[in-house]
Amino acid sequence: MGKTYTLSNRYFEMAEALIPGGVNSPVRACKSVDCDPIFIEKAKGAYIYDVDGNQYIDFVSSWGPMILGHCHPHVESAVKEALQLGTSFGIPTWNEVKLAQMIIDMVPGIHQVRLVNSGTEATMSAIRLARAYTGKKKILKFDGCYHGHGDSFLVKAGSGLATLGIPASPGVPEEVTQNTISIPFNDLKLLKQTLDQEEDYIAAVIVEPVPANMGVVLPNEDFLPTLRQWTQDMGIVLIFDEVITGFRLSPGGAQEYFGIIPDLTCLGKIIGGGLPVGAYGGKKEIMDMVAPSGPVYQAGTLSGNPLATAAGIATLEVLNRPGFYAHLEEKAAFYEEELNKLAAKYGINCRIQRIASMLTGFFGHKSDDIINDFTAALKSDTAMYSRFFRCMLISGVYLAPSQFEASFISLAHTYEDIEKTIKITEEAFRRW
Ligand code: KE4
Questions:
Q1: Is 73-319 in the same CATH topology as 6-71+323-431?
Q2: Which CATH architecture has domain 73-319?
Q3: Ligand 1 geometric centre to CA of 4 (Å)
Q4: Residue 385, exposed/middle/buried by CB under 10 A (0-12, 13-18, 19+)?
Q5: In which band, very low, low, confident or very high, does the pLDDT at 3 lie, cut at 50, 70 and 90?
Q6: Do the Cβ atoms of 50 and 5 come closer than 8 Å?
Q7: How many CB atoms lie within 10 A of CB 126?
Q8: Of 50, 58, 143, 241, which one is the catalytic site residue?
Q9: CATH number 3.40.630.30 is the correct assignment for the domain at 6-71+323-431
Q10: Where are the domains of the chain?
């Protein structure tokens, strides 16, 4: 029986009258995949259920946080237990110390950490800190990388801006953006030129070590080590934005995966297990500058919230179980392999790029086209992606509603779920 979206449509109509675009985050509006959003009622494991009773295998995982799947029992009981003790105090709690210790134990480059409420807060705070630490103003980022909606970052950013085709955002004064330099990812020649030219003015380079906001794009082998060396030599703070890669690529994120240690790290998503937690941390000599131990101001009413830290602690406890990442990687590799086979069998132009348990299928590219920067990613056939998204949606698979995002495999996805997804994909390709 075909799916009905009666209630989703009605709720969206009501939402549009009350909330800009009917959503609380632009990419959820599904504009780039030419359909209205579904409204979710509940989720469990690898599945989400919309308000009309339709079931979907979920590959968005709330844009990354749900690495354990939805309603993991360990997380659920931790939050329920915390709830009995109160929801927010604005006074220090033991869980903040415990989560801080876990983050420091897991993430090689973090020796002191501050909890905040989102990835955006983490990145905004990290660049403010880097500017204070170096006394310099400029920030260098990479085209297609997205670091949240802080003013300094809304320059040639990925994610929602790329999805909606917005090169930068109105309302951001040029006095701010003139201090942000954005160059192509993986371009060492231009990086060297830019650093040599701007060495005296650049406070920090901020990078997604594996960008996922232009779709998953892998760093060339020499890119991160060279970036690390040059920023080290020039006294420029290197910030890894690991909001997505943190705890995703390995317990210690991309910096453990590649063995490259940044000066500061930004975290989000997985760290809160689905509740709002972000964090920034790094070398103690830099973090000591953060108020109240130092003069760099940053604050937050709900930072370190007891429910959110309980969810984060429980999540990291499961991630640290033996074999967790190997198991996730095997399932993701199986999914990638089967997708490649299908694309070849049906002559569908789709380049799949994967690392660990996150991947993107770039439509309109040959399977061996390496996409290593934003310009290449933007050449994707977004109309084809849109059609694929809708085919999969009506067949019960929920993918990212944008070509410029990633799909995530969670602990909860079984091989049966992946085989079912492959069958549905084959049906979509067969009828292409
Ligand atoms: P939040 O403020 O959304 O928690 O984090 C911002 C952020 C920072 N850095 C990276 C690498 C990120 O990917 C993000 C947010 N990611 C997007 C999706 N790729 C969030 C989805 C949305 O905007 O609704």
A1: no
A2: 3-Layer(aba) Sandwich (3.40)
A3: 30
A4: buried
A5: confident
A6: yes
A7: 32
A8: 241
A9: no
A10: 6-71+323-431, 73-319
Average pLDDT value for the chain: 96
- The CB of 118 under 6 Å from ligand 1? The reply is yes
Ligand 1 contact, 401 CB (< 6 A): no
Q: Give me the pLDDT at residue 166, please.
A: 63
Is the Cβ–Cβ distance between 315 and 279 less than 8 Å?
no
Which whole number is the average pLDDT over 394-412? 98
Whether the model clears a pTM of 0.85, i.e. scores above it, the answer is yes
Please report the atom of ligand 1 found closest to the CA of residue 27. Answer: 24
- The set of long-range contacts for 190-196, using a CB threshold of 8 Å and a minimum separation of 24, is 191/226, 191/227, 191/230, 192/230, 194/140, 195/140, 195/230, 195/231, 195/234, 195/236
Ligand 1 atom with the shortest distance to the CA of 119:
5
CA of 296 to the centre of ligand 1 (A): 24
Tokens 């019960």: give the residue: 396
Ligand 1 atom closest to Cα of 121? Answer: 2
Residue 232 has a CB neighbour count (10 Å cut-off) of 12
Report the pLDDT averaged over residues 124-149. Answer: 97
156 is catalytic: no
Angle (deg, nearest 10), helices 188-198 and 223-234: 10
| Residue whose entry in the numeric block shows the structure tokens 């204070």 | 132
Q: Rounded distance, CA 168 to CA 170, Å?
A: 7
